Amino acid sequence: MINSRLALAAAKSSRFLAGFEENAMHAILTNAKVRRFSAKHNIVSRGHRATHLFLIQSGQAHYYHLTKRGELVLLTRLVPGDVIGLAALLKSPSDYRADAEAALDCELLAWDHTVMRKLVSRYPLLMENGLRIGLDLLGIYAQRHIGLVTKTAEERLADALVRLGHQSREVHPDGIEVRATNDQLGALADISLFTASRVLRKWVREGIISKKRGRVVLHDPEALIID
């Protein structure tokens, strides 16, 4: 059963449902089903037909690609309001383009393809919002690729940490808390774990961040923004 309060909070923060009045948003949400995934459990698998579109209500997920050698390439971190499976908006849906795994215990709203197509017919703005999200993700991946060519490892790590800081809803008096391991930060910055750990230790000494197990607190995010 949908928790209306939780669903509405996630919907209002979601770009996928941007521009909808509350009555329309409620109608869309009531067509969803709740799905729960424990941490480290798979939500969707690359290569499988996109039968559902998911919107994260609570928790976090990793969107990643697994290479033939078994190397995990982390593409982005997903938080409440983010969606998985935009291909389910299409009349003939393609496959999921990457894998999504629950980073923390997750609760998601799920619409199957048939239901989503009916909603798209009634609310064309869903398709427009989905396209906008897809283009934004393409822009992020393009910037990461450009960063590999034009930026140092430290600059790329700073970019990744600032992006996660913008996503975070954990704001405390001493800074913004980001839930991420050194390994995950390195993956998002396209650098090695060794390099990520070395740079993070440097920022700790400079007072820009502090570290806890699996968490980083940004005390001075502006110091990480490099023009």
Low-confidence sequence ranges? none
Residue fraction in strands: 15-25%
Pairing-aware structural class of the strands and helices?
A: alpha+beta
Number of domains: 2
Helix % is 25-40%
Count of β-strands: 12
Largest sheet: 4 strands, antiparallel
Topology readout:
Elements: H1 4-12, H2 22-29, E1 33-37, E2 42-44, E3 52-58, E4 61-66, E5 72-78, E6 83-84, E7 99-102, E8 106-112, H3 113-122, H4 125-150, H5 153-167, E9 171-172, E10 175-179, H6 182-189, H7 193-205, E11 209-212, E12 215-218
Antiparallel strand pairs: 1-8, 2-7, 3-6, 3-8, 4-5, 4-7, 9-10, 10-12, 11-12
Helix pairs in contact: 5-6, 6-7
Question: What does this molecule look like?
Answer:
The chain is α+β, with helices and mostly antiparallel strands and 227 residues long. It has two domains: 145 residues, Sandwich (Jelly Rolls), CATH 2.60.120; 73 residues, Winged helix-like DNA-binding domain superfamily/Winged helix DNA-binding domain (Arc Repressor Mutant, subunit A, Orthogonal Bundle), CATH 1.10.10.10. 39% of the residues lie in helices and 25% in strands. The protein contains seven helices and twelve strands. The strands form three sheets. Strands 1-8-3-6 form a four-stranded antiparallel β-sheet. Helix 5 crosses helix 6 and helix 6 crosses helix 7.
Characteristics of this structure?
227 residues, alpha+beta, Jelly Rolls, Arc Repressor Mutant, subunit A, 2 domains, four-stranded antiparallel beta sheet, 7 helices, 39% helix, globular
